[in-house]
Amino acid sequence: MPALFISRHFPRLSWIQWLICGIAATGFAFDTYELLMLPLIVKPALLELGGIRPGSPEFTLWFGLLFYIPALAGGFFGLLGGYLTDCFGRKKVLTISILLYAFAAFVAGFSISLPMLLVLRCLVFIGVSVEFVAAVAWLAEIFPKQQREGILGITQVFSSLGGVMVAVANGIVTAWSTNSPAPLLLGFHLPALQLPAIVPLPGLDLLGSIANPHAHWRYTLMSGLIPAIPLLLVRPFLPESPLWMEKRERGQLQRPSITELFSQNLRKTTIIVTLMFMLSYAAFYGAIAQVTQIIPGLPEVKADVAAALRQQLPDTLRDKFKAQWRAAGKTGAETSQLIGAEERRIASAVEQAHAAQIMKAPEFGGLLGRFALAALAIVVVSRRRLLRMFLLPGLVVMPLTFAWAGVTSFSWLEYGIFLAGFLTVGQFSFWGNYLPQAFPLHLRGTGESFAANIGGRMIGTSFAGLTQWIAYCLPGSVSNAARIAYAAAAIALLCYLLNLVGSFWLPEPDARDLSK
After folding, report:
1. Per residue in 365-383, pLDDT tens?
2. Is 359 helix (H, G, I), strand (E, B) or coil?
3. Three-state DSSP state, 37
4. Which of 111, 234, 343, 347 has the highest local Cβ count within 10 Å?
5. 355/417 Cα distance (integer angstroms)
């Protein structure tokens, strides 16, 4: 049966078509790889480059800057990139965007200051934002209608693999930075290896030095260069979009215009699609991305923290520390603060281990969600019905996951966040399939970019901060973790409900000839 399904919906591809799919899949995978790299490296980077400790106002400031300034840059310049995609071609802009984020990530590994790291992360985000738009338009216009939905869906599955890939890569370079065996998956390890020391780039050594030339976070950033290597090798064999080229050669390619997105014919599509794309991103960043802030309040995590404190900081050791600090002239208040700092260090390690475990659940859930969307997109004709297949279950799953499991049980939260990833990340693939059909050829890149980058990346990601603000303002005496869980549940329910309502106005694309 699987072989029959594949042969029916995916006729044999030529080697050029396989090459196209491979480059697009690599681009999608490393989009996610580059974006999810930051949570892994931000803490050690701030410690080394700025001497900034977690919990300080400076840490909070730079943490926010490194997350939100690149998102704003990606949204604005991503829109410009979509416009350039319509002006100069899909392949050319796709190639430039991948090279931009790959080389910016590599150079970021040589950062000697926080402003330098911030600028390079902005370039990475710009490249990622443009690549998605160019790749989706490129694939949609190269493959015929009977293959288009499946190709778009399957290649976007690799986006979810990016999160797994960066986690594995970070583990490998962390081990190799200390000449240790590197963990893979399922208990397998790579032999020990010492990575070379990192020295400042020529010219930058005049501005500063690299404090730790074997810092694992630098190697993790530099691994972002990987997608540029196959791209440079195969670029001469990659064709431009035949539909775009034909229009251009005939002199029939109209000049793209952002204002045309709000013309009478396209106004409804632009507004509805942008708002709904925003809500899909908002559900992820306003709820799923908050899970690491929620788990410290769960009973299992509290129990493990208490056990770690008993083991690593028993009463005898506490008394020894207190005696040493008092002998050093510390006051009672200062001694209490030092004991508290040691307790937070131990608790943080336990909570981080639980966070690393639970964040695998939405990654694998999202991977299956994208597979499900790819299969359903082929057999479900109505786009509204297809989207509702993800939205309707989410009205139950999302609030239960955060408002109940998020304050009750780590195990139940892990199951729930898997389903939440399945339903929410699956929607990202839906929009990747839908957008090329929503806009005419000369506006395809511009329209896709407006919805994805202005709606999704600029506005949707800001819901991460909105959840924190709502949690702060909630009345009652519950813990901060519980407040975030309740706020995330409210945000998720609202986003899913509004997207469901919006689906009734979502234009149902006809059998649009993508050459028009």
Report:
1. 998 999 899 889 888 889 9
2. coil
3. helix
4. 111
5. 12
- 217 is written with which tokens? 């976070």
Buried b (16+ CB within 10 A) or exposed e, 311-332: eebeeeeeeeebeebeeeeeee
- Distance of alpha carbon 70 from the chain centroid: 13
Radius of gyration of the chain (CA): 24
Query: Cβ neighbours of residue 245 under 8 Å, at least 6 residues apart?
Result: 89
Residue type, 509: P
Closest CA to 425 of 436, 413, 417, 435: 417
- The answer to whether 491 touches 469, Cβ cutoff 8 Å, is no
Decide: 443 and 256 in contact? Cβ < 8 Å.
Answer: yes
Rounded Cα distance, 373 and 426, in Å: 6
| Sequence-distant (≥ 6) Cβ neighbours of residue 194 within 8 angstroms | 176, 179
The neighbouring-strand residues paired with 182 are 190
Read off the pTM: 0.81
CA dihedral 102→104→109→115, nearest 10 degrees, is -150
User: Long-range contacts for 507-512 (Cβ within 8 Å, ≥24 apart)?
Assistant: 507/268, 507/269, 507/272, 507/273, 507/438, 508/382, 508/383, 508/384, 509/383, 509/434, 509/437, 509/438, 511/145, 512/437
Closest CA to 378 of 171, 47, 153, 217: 153
CA distance 474 to 471: 5
Q: What is the pLDDT of residues 224-252, one digit of tens each?
A: 888 888 888 887 888 888 888 888 888 87
